[in-house]
Design goal:
The protein has 479 residues and is α+β, with helices and mostly antiparallel strands. Helices cover 35% and strands 24% of the residues. The protein contains eleven helices and 18 strands. The strands form three sheets. Strands 1, 2, 3, 4, 5, 6, 7 and 8 form an eight-stranded mixed beta sheet that branches. Strands 9-18-17-14-15 form a five-stranded antiparallel beta sheet. It has a five-stranded antiparallel beta sheet with strand order 10-11-12-13-16. It is elongated, with a radius of gyration of 35 Å.
């Protein structure tokens, strides 16, 4: 887990409170909860001071009453944390509460920066360095982070793991150290290290270790809760961004069906995610014929959708200057190939339909399914591949368009491979033959009805909210 540096904290207490016996009736000081922190914020301070004073001598946690007092601090901190969502204040409550509970001079919570493989804590006093960062394996806290074990050093200067660097830089004198790992209860991974310095006139006891482990557990819970909240917020922002991208892509698709005498049109477009690498379109060519295009970028998702947006823009430009599908496809190949990296490729079909003669010409860069249904014979023919997909070598491309004729009742069935390659729970492929049977069964019906029947069959076939691949289907029927 990686937390922003501004969310870490180091707390120092130079004067801690005198020994207080509950039985003596002396009033316990409050734990630094949310109300106190809010008052400090109201004074105009950018952050709460890392200096923390209780105005007296250290708590004697070796006595029974002192231990009860320490447990009261644990309870107060637990209650304060339950009402907090701000990470800075959560960390301050934990470190100040730990200082108060065991009577130490200073507490620091070092957080993990997984990206940089460092442990870091931020301080706010003017006299000290703004941030402490150490390699994740360095020093006492590095040893704790690596082993997930407790380090209790009564004499740090005699321990090879300790470095005097920060004492020399700050003028602080470290007499003893207790460092406890802060470990996620969800995944068991390290979140940070809680380090306490200079127990008053003594070294940290087994009771101190148990108390500080409780504070570390509360810190872990608070950090995990904050991380989950941040993850939820990021996920929400991502969903909103993807929805915006989806709406933009929907705007690239035709807003209405062509209004052409003696022809009917229907389409279905279903992305595997929120956006798609599939594309279909129609446009008017320079010679007045109806241009039709269907394409499929290898893969799906945001990257494929961005590439397909570029393809759409190029096709619309080429439609204003070219009449022949073969020349449009070759110019598209030249323009888009430099943008195809990491094995990406694009299958693409271009058709020009003469609505007066009912003939059509096409150039097909490896795109399937592309079928013509012949109503008179109730049979299918395939729109042949004329060249390899865009992104592959083009030496074998045919330089002439293929030509065919649509008779009354004939259908052009143009889709993407997501329609025929979808698999069910038994790992059976939907397949081209199943698609043909559906088309033939409903061929006499309007294209919109045929498309709905195919969509319904596919939705029953796959499992889950989305299909495993983008699905597009376009039907053109001569009436």
């Amino acid at each position: 887990m990686s937390i922003a540096p501004a969310s870490s904290v180091e707390i120092r207490s130079t004067e801690l409170h005198a020994s207080r016996s509950i039985s003596s009736g002396r009033k316990r000081p409050r734990s630094p909860g949310s109300q106190e922190l809010s008052r400090n914020a109201a004074t105009g301070s950018p952050t709460m001071s890392s200096e923390f004073s209780n105005g007296g001598e250290f708590e004697d946690v070796t006595s029974f009453d002192g231990q009860i007092e320490a447990l009261h601090h644990v309870l107060e901190v637990a209650l304060d944390l339950a009402a907090q969502n701000d990470l800075d204040q959560i960390l301050r409550i934990v470190t100040q509460g730990a200082c108060n509970a065991v009577g130490c001079e200073r507490a620091s919570l070092f957080l993990c920066d997984d990206r940089r493989q460092e442990l870091y804590t931020r301080v706010t006093t003017e006299l000290e360095i703004a941030e402490i960062r150490v390699p994740r394996t360095a020093g006492v806290i590095g040893w704790v982070a690596t082993t997930l074990a407790t380090a209790n050093l009564p004499d740090p200067a005699s321990d090879a793991r300790w470095s005097s660097k920060f004492d020399l830089e700050t003028g602080f004198h470290t007499r003893n150290i207790l460092a406890i790992p802060v470990v996620s209860a969800l995944g068991g991974h390290l979140l940070g290290v809680l380090q306490l310095l200079n127990f008053a006139g003594r070294q940290a006891s087994a009771f101190d270790e148990r108390v500080v482990r409780v504070f570390a557990a509360h810190a872990a819970t608070a950090l995990e809760r904050t991380r989950l909240q941040e993850d939820a917020e990021r996920a929400q922002h991502l969903r909103q961004s993807i929805e915006v991208a989806r709406q933009i892509q929907l705007g690239f698709l035709p807003r209405s069906l062509p209004n052409v005498p003696h022809y009917e049109f229907a389409t279905w477009w279903q992305p595997a995610e929120y956006v798609s690498g599939d594309y279909y379109d129609w446009f008017t060519l320079r010679n007045g014929e109806l241009g039709v295009s269907v394409g499929d970028v290898c893969g799906h998702g945001l990257g494929a959708s961005l590439l397909m947006a570029s393809v759409r823009a190029m096709i619309h430009v080429l439609a204003k200057t070219e009449n022949q599908p073969v020349s449009m496809l070759e110019l598209l190949r030249e323009a888009i190939c430099p943008d195809l990296h990491a094995g990406r490729f694009l299958t693409f079909l271009l058709i020009s339909l003469n609505i007066k003669t009912h003939t059509f010409r096409y150039s097909n860069a490896g795109h399937q399914p592309a079928l013509q249904y012949h109503a008179a014979t109730k049979s299918f023919s395939k729109l042949q591949t004329t060249c390899l997909p865009i992104g592959f070598p083009s030496e074998s491309c045919e330089r002439e368009c293929h030509t065919a004729t649509l008779e009354p009742g004939d259908l052009l069935v143009l889709g993407t491979d997501g329609v025929i390659e979808v698999r069910n729970a038994r790992d059976e492929m939907f397949g081209i033959e199943r698609l043909k049977r559906l088309i033939a069964t409903h061929a006499a019906e309007p294209p919109a009805t045929i498309v709905r029947n195919v969509e319904g069959a596919l939705r029953e076939f796959w499992t889950g909210l989305f299909p495993p691949d983008d699905c597009t289907l376009m039907l053109i029927k001569r009436s």
